[in-house]
Amino acid sequence: MTSETIKRLLNDAFKPELLEIIDNSAAHAGHAGARSGGGHYHITIVADAFEGKSLVQRHQLVYKALGDMMKQQIHALGINALSPSEKP
């Protein structure tokens, strides 16, 4: 369910050309963050909003879009945020 919420929030915020979400939570089952309910995710997102932004600014935009999810539902988040001109 958390992956779907992440997907919805990021799609609403960025209208990305590409959005991939990988849920690695099962690999961290015994981890302290997992015990408190927070999952481990990695996202790759390609959107115009990242054009001309630094890595830190891109991550801040993603954190802002996810809002309160970063406090409870998400324990760890890997972010690969690219502009369309940088996509592989």
Task: Determine and state the CATH class.
Answer: Alpha Beta
If you consult CATH, what is the topology? GMP Synthetase, Chain A, domain 3
Radius of gyration (CA) equals: 13 Å
CATH architectural name: 2-Layer Sandwich
Count of extended strands: 3
Task: List the topology elements.
Layout: H1 2-14, E1 18-23, H2 32-35, E2 39-46, H3 55-66, E3 74-82
Parallel strand pairs: 2-3
Antiparallel strand pairs: 1-2
What does this protein look like?
By secondary structure, this protein is an alpha+beta fold. The protein has a single domain, classed as GMP Synthetase, Chain A, domain 3, CATH 3.30.300.90. Helices cover 33% and strands 26% of the residues.
Quickly describe the structure:
The chain is of the alpha+beta class and 88 residues long. The protein has 3 helices and 3 strands; from the N terminus they run αβαβαβ.
Key terms:
single chain; 88 residues; alpha+beta; GMP Synthetase, Chain A, domain 3; 3 strands; 26% strand
